[in-house]
Specification:
The protein is mostly beta strands. 14% of the residues lie in helices and 54% in strands. The chain has an 8-stranded antiparallel beta barrel. The longest helix is centred in the first third of the chain and has 14 residues. It is elongated and about 60 Å long. 32% of the residues are buried. The N terminus is likely disordered.
């Protein structure tokens, strides 16, 4: 909780900060973990579910004017279900509530108008770049696929540019296997041009 509150305060710097932390975490000092556990035997065919919370940055476009962005930083959560079908590949479906962007009128006399609320559903794949696949206790992951974004507004006066209904997402992260069934994970995700998320959570595999 303390970490998330600290991240909330830095707002727009969250993606850059989290990227730096992931690079240090994955690239510095964890090679022995990969090497030591690379011989681990694990069933490559496995269902899993996961849940994450995190910080988001939302950037609605406003080509026609009429309002300005009051606060682009928010918080949200992501729920996923996936199936590991190969030693280095998984298919994944996820839903994410990315929070809301605060909108102000460009007329100072009007002030705050309300919020644009973001929710997404995505279908994609997760890939492990290591030759040993998911076998090590700690692995980096790369994810991507198709995303459908749903917007809603808290006030009908908010007119915004809907950039996309369907688009692409891409992400990077790390997965730390704590037990055969439970893992900790972190993700940096970008949904098209105007939605970004940094999340941490847990993953559970119902069977081994």
């Amino acid at each position: 909780l303390a970490m998330l509150l600290a991240m909330r305060r830095v707002g727009h710097r969250v993606p850059a900060i989290m990227a730096s932390l992931l690079i240090v975490f994955i690239g510095g000092g964890v090679a022995p973990v990969w090497a030591a556990d690379a011989a681990a035997v694990e069933d490559p065919d496995r269902w899993y579910v996961s849940g994450e919370i995190g910080i988001t940055r939302l950037e609605p476009r406003n080509r026609n004017g009429g309002y300005r962005l009051g606060d682009s930083s928010s918080s949200g959560y992501r729920l996923s279900a996936g199936y590991r079908w190969a030693p280095r590949w998984s298919a994944e479906l996820h839903y994410a509530d990315l929070g809301k962007a605060s909108i102000d009128s460009d007329n100072a006399a009007v002030g705050r108008l309300g919020d644009i609320i973001y929710r997404v559903v995505a279908l994609g794949a997760e890939w492990v770049p290591l030759r040993s696949g998911y076998a090590p206790r700690l692995v980096p992951v790369i994810a991507g696929g198709l995303v459908v974004t749903a917007h809603s507004v808290s006030d009908a006066r908010i007119r915004y540019d809907k950039l996309h209904g369907t688009g692409l997402y891409i992400g990077v992260g790390a997965l730390w296997r704590v037990t055969p069934r439970w893992s900790l994970q972190g993700r940096l995700l970008s949904y098209d041009r105007d939605e970004f998320a940094a999340t941490v959570g847990v993953r559970f595999a119902p069977r081994r």
